[in-house]
Every structure is written in structure tokens, then in C-alpha cells.
Amino acid sequence: MTLTMKPGQGTHRATTKQAVVEIVVPVYNEAADLEASVRRLTGYLAHELPYRYRVTIADNASTDDTLAIAGRLAAELDGVGVVHLTAKGRGRALKQVWLASDADVVAYMDVDLSTDLAALLPLLAPLVSGHSDVAIGSRLATGSRVVRGPKREFISRCYNLMLRGALQVSFSDAQCGFKAMRSDVARRLLPLVQDTNWFFDTELLVLAQRAGLRIHEVPVDWVDDPGTTVDIAATATEDLRGVWRLMKGLTRGDIPIAVVRAELARPALPAAAAPQGLLGQMLRFGAVGVGSTLAYFVLYVLLRLGLDPQAANLTALALTAVANTAANRVFTFGVRGNDGLFGHHVVGLVAFVVALGLTSGSLALLHLLAADASRLVEVLVLGAANAVATAVRFLALKLAMGRSRAPDVVARVRTRATSLNASNVQPAVELALWSLDSGRGECRRPSGGRAGGAQRVRRIDPPRHRGGHPIGRLGVVFAR
Length: 480
Known about the structure:
Blueprint: E1 2-5, E2 20-27, H1 34-48, E3 52-60, H2 66-76, E4 80-85, H3 90-100, E5 105-109, H4 120-128, E6 134-138, E7 145-147, H5 150-167, E8 178-182, H6 183-189, H7 200-210, E9 215-219, E10 221-223, H8 232-252, H9 257-264, H10 277-303, H11 309-332, H12 341-369, H13 375-401, H14 407-420, E11 429-432, E12 457-458, E13 475-479
Helix pairs in contact: 1-2, 5-8, 10-11, 10-13, 11-12, 12-13
């Protein structure tokens, strides 16, 4: 790696808030557009940005005159530097420059400047103020204005829709080349990001959300660059592999996101916390049950167009039962990974058989008493039978999952936390199992700890999803 920076970098527009922002422009064979874009960017920053800044051109092993032009710009323009990498990869360049930065906020934008620079200050201000941890430009948020072809629009929307379904993300646009984050957050989060190319953005945002960080979205004005050299098919394939890798890593607990969350996440608001113990489980179970019941009724009505009542009931019940068990493992009882998976679905199957007996029996009894009963009456009877079946299902799943533990996940997270040398939580980072039934975080010091002497620990709440419920039976205890 080579680094060139003209002395006196980042001395523009000193204000009472002496924040420093480093903006990275990753490039690969951009000799044709680089100079005009950098001059336009620095001109805008000098007149409009109220923070000290520097611009770093990150050259990704270009084979044309990109590096030479970048070096000349660094020599001519105050606050412009260049970093040369011998290997390609936009994610690799961003990760390397951001981790080495001593700025307060790090950002990046595509060299084509497709995003209107007027969105830059709204992107940076929430980070400088400390209100947010990560900020992204969004072409899909309300208020954005986008000019691009229907093919790229369709692909972008499908990709972000897939992320919502597969990884339960809440941000609207993962791929817009206009992002920023606080440097302290970057130094803690970036070591967990594995991708070095185009999926880097998505992986970073997914981990940020799972770590409980606040992601600020800015609607942008964005005009597509018709001369882009991005291989859409190859990028889509790479993204799909990345999504699968993230799903596996998060499910198995290979990514120590709980440790990062404990360090960086904002404290939960008391009013937003979901009730714990039996009441909390019943509320979450009820929410899952409402969704399952609605899906069941919709499937039943649709299947009745071509099947008899018993066949339609069996099919609709089987499909929703599998989904219901999977949802309750995660959302109601906080069970993650494959630990006990088979047994839980066996219990779900038994509950399904009970529900099938209740609903089928109620239908049979209804048609015995009133052979010409209407569809509405069928649905009402099935609703009553499902209410009884739901109570049975809750008790069965609670017995199977309510006290599940995840020792393998604890070991993996502890190992990964140690390998990352999380200095901010020294002298010790220990994982505790949370007793969710009692509503208290009960910690047990793992074997091999200090012998003798009193130990002071700080108790924290279990990590939570956006909905307010625990994401698992893992907690972090900091030894004082």
C-alpha cells in the first residue's frame, strides 16, 4: 500500500465543532472520469461542508492511468490523498482505508458522483452529532428521486426485497454507493465483515442492524451512470452467496455479534421493552399465532376452490404448522441455531396432529349436524377449534423450548470474542445464559475463572431484536 497526502490536509472551514470527515473514493480503471469528479467533489466540500475533511482516492489495482492521475491530484489539491492497493475489491479498499483513518467520521461515494452531493451534509450530520452510528443514502426511500433504466430498477428492488425476507433487514437500500459511519463504530464492526467486493455494503449494514446500531437513511437524488462497467450477473451471484453465508453465520452463532452489540448498542428504552417471562412469551406466541391463523384461513379458502374441506384443512394446517414452529423458536422462545431443532419440530408435529384432530373432528361434527353448512359457518367452527389447538400448542412448545440452552453458541461466541481481542471489554468478556422464564438475567461464571475473591459484575439486558424481544439466551457480563 502506498499513501500520498499533501501537508495541511483537512483544514477547511474550521468551526466550533472540529469534526474531521474522511471521504473515500474507491476506483478501478477510472482514468476517464477521476479528475473531473474529484475536482467537483473538493470544490463542493470547500464551499459547503462545515467540517474539516480529507478526500482519499483508493485505487484498486488499476491497470490504466488512474493511479498517476490520482497522484497528480493529491499533489495539486489540498486535502486530497491517494492509497494504492495491489489487489482489486471495493470492500477491501474501504475496509483498509477506514480502519487506518484517524477521522471522526468515515464515508465513501462512487467516483461517478451519481448521488447529488446536496445529500452529503444530511448524511454526515447525524454521525457528527452522535445521533446515529451509520448513515446511508437510499434510492428507494420516500422522497428520493432516481433516474435509471427499468432493468436496474427491477433488480435493485428485488434484491432489497430479498434481504428483507431472508435477513429481516429494516433499511431500504443496501447498495447505494453513498454511505458513512462513525470511526469508533467502524473500528469495532469492520473486523467482522468478510466480503471484500460488492457485497461489503450489505454485510456491513446487516451486521450493524444486528448489533443494535442506529442506521440513518437519507433520500437521495440519483442519476444512473450509463457507462458503468459493473457486471450485473456476476454481482448478483456474488450477493446471493453472501446472503447465504450471512444467514448461516448468524444462525449458527459464528459471528460474535452479541459482543459487539453489548459494546456499541444504545440502551433499550424501558417503555419499548417487551414483557418478559410467561406474559412476554404469551404475547409473542399470540402475535405469531395471529399471523399463522390468518395465513391458515387464506390458504383454506384458496384450497377449497379445488379440494374438499378435509383435504383443504389438512394442507393449510400442515403448511402453517411448520412455519409456526420455526417462528416460535426464534420470536417466542429465543432459540437459535440447530440445537434441538429436530426435537422441536417433532413437538410441533405432535401439536399439529392434535390441531388436525380438533379441526377435522369439528368439521366432521358440523357436517353431521348440518350437511349444508355455509363456508362462513365452517370458518367460525374452525376458528373455535383452532383456539383450543393454540393453547395446546403453546404448552407443548413451552415445555420443549422454554428452557433451551445454547452452550455451543456460547463457546463459539466466547472463542471469537477472545480472538478479536475486544479491548473495550477487558479485562474479561464472559457470556452468561439468561433465564427468560423468570425475566431475570442470571449469570454463571464459566469454569476456569479466577479463584477466590469477590467479583463485581455489571448486569445488562439480553440483546433484543427490533421488536423488543430477546434474540437468544446470550448475555455479556463485564468483569470489573
